[in-house]
Design brief:
The structure is a homodimer of 248-residue chains.
Chain A (H helix, E strand, L loop, with lengths): L7 E15 L2 E9 L5 E2 L2 E5 L4 H13 L5 E8 L9 H7 L8 H5 L3 E8 L14 E8 L10 H15 L6 H4 L6 H12 L5 H11 L2 E7 L9 E5 L1 H10 L6
C-alpha cells in the first residue's frame, strides 16, 4: 500500500458486508488476499477528517462504483483481542504490507460493522483493492476461510438482515425494478433461511399492498409466463411502519 | 482527573443512556458538570486491554454499583466534527481538566452509544464521577442542556428503546418483580410515547401469555386493590420471537 497511513485515524476500521441476491441465492461481496487462501470483507480505515459512515460509503464505492447504497451500522466489533498476534507478520510475509507499515497492522483495531444492500446486477465488475487478487460475489452457503473475525462479522450481518427484512422496505434494494411473485418469495426465503407457504406469502403481500402488478409478463420460461410486479414504495413503507408480521 | 489518560485508547469513548421507569415516567441517569449548567450522559474511555462492551459495563457499574445491567449497542457517533473546537478549553476554564490533560480532550472522539435498562428502585444513590457535582435520574420530558451531542445520543437511544420494547422482553428489566396491569400498560405507553387502549392492551398481553397473575393485590390505593402480576419469562421470550405486534 502506498497510501500514507498517518492520514487515517489509528486503531479504527470499518468492515462492510454487502449483500446481493441472484438465482435464488444470497451472496456477499468478498476479496481474496493476494498469495493466500484467505478472503476478507471490503473494509478500510477512516481519514482523520472523515465521518465514519462516510468511510464505509467510500469503501463500498471504491469496490462497486456505486455511490448510493443502502448502508446500516449493525455492530461494533470491539474485543481487545480481535486482531491476533502474528497478523501483521503474516501480512508482511505474504508481501501485502511493507515492513515499515507492519506496525500499523500490529495495533489493536476496533471495527464498525456495516451491512449494505445492492441489486446484484448493478455490481458485475467489482474493483480490487491493493492487497487482493479477486473481488467477487460469493454464495452465502459457500463462504471461504476468512481473515480475522470477518466470518463472525458476516454472520452477525446476516442476522441483522433477517431482522431488517421484516421491518424495513429493503427488498426494494435487493430486487430489480420488475420481478415475479416467486422471485419476491425466493428473496424472503433466502434471507430468512426457511421456506414460506406460497399462498400465505401471496396473501400477506397482497393484504399489505406492497406490490402492484404491471401489464407485463416474464417471457421465455418453460412454464406459463408469470406476471411482473413492481413495489408500491409508499405503501411498502407504511406497511413496515405498521409491522409486516411473519410474512407467511 | 488523576487517572493516567495514556492507559486508554485514544480518540474513542463510550456513552451510556441508562433508562429507568418510575411514577409513570421514563427517566435517564445524567451527571451535572461541576460549576456549569451542563449535563452529560454517563460515559468514559476504553482501557488499552479492555473490550469496548466491557468499558460500557464498567462505566455503568461505577455510577450505579450494578454489574448486571441489560446493555445494548445502538449507534456509533462517528461524525468528524462532533467535538466542537473550544470544548477542551471550556473544560479547562471550568477547572474540570488540568492544562496538561487538555490536549487529550482536543482529539477527535468516536463514541459508541449504548442504551441500558434498570429497575429504577435499584439505583437510588448513584455515584458521581470526578468532574460532576450531581448524578441523578432526570425525567425524559425535562432533559436539561447537555454536553456535546449527548442530547442526540439520548434521542436516538429512545428510538432504539421504542423499537426494542416491541421486539424483546425488556419490560422485565424495567419493572419490579410484581406489578399491576396498569403499571405494565403505563410502561409501554411511556416508552412508546402514546396512549394505548386499555382493553386491547390487556387482551394482547393475555393472548401472548407473557404475564401470570399472583394471589396478591396491591394494597393501600384509594381504588379497588388491583391484582399483582409477574412475567412468565419463557413465554414472554417466545412471544417476542413470534412478534408482539403493536400491543394495542
Amino acid at each position: 500500500m502506498n497510501v500514507n497511513l498517518s492520514t487515517f485515524l489509528p486503531g479504527f476500521s470499518v468492515d462492510c458486508v454487502l449483500f446481493g441476491f441472484h438465482s435464488r441465492s444470497l451472496r456477499v461481496l468478498l476479496l481474496k488476499l493476494k498469495n493466500a487462501d484467505t478472503w476478507s470483507l471490503p473494509g478500510g480505515f477512516v481519514y482523520q477528517e472523515e465521518d465514519v459512515d462516510a468511510a464505509a460509503r467510500r469503501v463500498l464505492k471504491e469496490r462497486t462504483g456505486l455511490g448510493e447504497i443502502v448502508l446500516r451500522q449493525f455492530h461494533l466489533f470491539g474485543k481487545a483481542g480481535r486482531v491476533p498476534e502474528g497478523h501483521a507478520d503474516r501480512l508482511e510475509a505474504l508481501g501485502l504490507v511493507k515492513p515499515e507499515a507492519a506496525d500499523w497492522f500490529r495495533q489493536r483495531f476496533i471495527s464498525m460493522g456495516y451491512f449494505a444492500l445492492v441489486e446484484y446486477s448493478q455490481v458485475q465488475s467489482p474493483t480490487l483493492d491493493p492487497i487482493s487478487e479477486l473481488c467477487e460475489w460469493v454464495e452465502w452457503n459457500e463462504l471461504p476461510p476468512m481473515m480475522l473475525d470477518h466470518l463472525d462479522i458476516a454472520s452477525l450481518a446476516r442476522e441483522a438482515l433477517q431482522k431488517e427484512i421484516l421491518e424495513q422496505p429493503i427488498a426494494i434494494s435487493l430486487l430489480p425494478k420488475r420481478f415475479t411473485m416467486p422471485e419476491l418469495q425466493a428473496l424472503f426465503e433466502t434471507v430468512l433461511g426457511r421456506q414460506l407457504d406460497r399462498r400465505n406469502f401471496q396473501r400477506k403481500v397482497q393484504s399489505h399492498g406492497i406490490v402492484t402488478r404491471t401489464n407485463e409478463r416474464r417471457q421465455g420460461g418453460a412454464h406459463k409466463s408469470p406476471w411482473l410486479y413492481e413495489f408500491d414504495e409508499a405503501q411498502y413503507r407504511r406497511a413496515c411502519e405498521q409491522g409486516l408480521g411473519p410474512m407467511a
